[in-house]
């Protein structure tokens, strides 16, 4: 059994004060850091993703241009590569991160499986290369990028556990729907205290 942690999009634009700030985002950042500090041997590999959009274009229709964003498929400009908004939240300690995954360059990308390392390795390649069979997933936002990453991980044959005290959603209703979808697809829920 080889276990990895996926930290999804714990970035300034997705935490309090950001363009698409999620309530509880900063607490998730601090909680993930505490988890890694308290259990340094729990994960053989730690993947952290960042939404990393192009500046100067609408990233395949992902950024609302002429109309107001619908917050379903179009969004305000966020997580532009190289800006403060795209950086990890300062409470997230990234020392333990093995693979930094960037996604969304020029296109919409919700799941970390749509991203790659700076060297161009995909998540699928890395999981296979390192024999990862189980993943715990934390981060932002439960009803968007966490949802998509969990469903993709299950589809790729991983055993998936969502640490429910280390995720936060945009809206209560869509978060509940997303959690139900994850459970239906085979995800297991646990709290970070259960991590050994
Ligand atoms: Zn985006």
Automatic annotation (TrEMBL):
* Enzyme Commission (EC) number: 3.5.1.19
UniProt entry keywords in alphabetical sequence? Hydrolase, Metal-binding, Pyridine nucleotide biosynthesis
What enzyme class is recorded for this protein? hydrolase
Q: Which GO terms describe its molecular function?
A: metal ion binding; nicotinamidase activity
| Pathway field | Cofactor biosynthesis; nicotinate biosynthesis; nicotinate from nicotinamide: step 1/1
**Which family is it part of?**
Belongs to the isochorismatase family.
> Which PANTHER family does the UniProt record give?
LD05707P, PYRAZINAMIDASE/NICOTINAMIDASE
UniProt-recorded name of the protein: nicotinamidase
């Amino acid at each position: 059994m080889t276990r990895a942690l996926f930290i999804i999009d714990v970035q300034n634009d997705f935490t309090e004060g950001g363009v698409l700030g999620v309530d509880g985002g900063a607490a998730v950042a601090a909680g993930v850091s505490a988890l890694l500090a308290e259990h340094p041997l729990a994960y053989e590999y730690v993947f952290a993703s960042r939404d990393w959009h192009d500046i100067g274009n609408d990233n395949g229709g992902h950024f609302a241009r002429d109309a107001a964003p619908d917050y379903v498929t179009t969004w305000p400009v966020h997580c532009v590569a190289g800006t403060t908004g795209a950086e990890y939240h300062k409470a997230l300690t990234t020392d333990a991160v093995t693979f930094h995954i960037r996604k969304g360059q020029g296109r919409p990308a919700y799941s970390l499986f749509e991203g790659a390392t700076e060297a161009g390795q995909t998540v699928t390649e890395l999981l296979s290369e390192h024999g990862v069979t189980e993943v715990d997933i934390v981060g932002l936002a439960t009803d968007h990028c966490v949802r998509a990453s969990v469903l993709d991980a299950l589809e790729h044959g991983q055993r998936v556990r969502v640490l429910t005290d280390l995720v936060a959603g945009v809206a209560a209703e869509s978060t509940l729907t997303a959690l139900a979808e994850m459970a239906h697809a085979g995800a297991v829920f646990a709290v970070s205290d259960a991590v050994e």
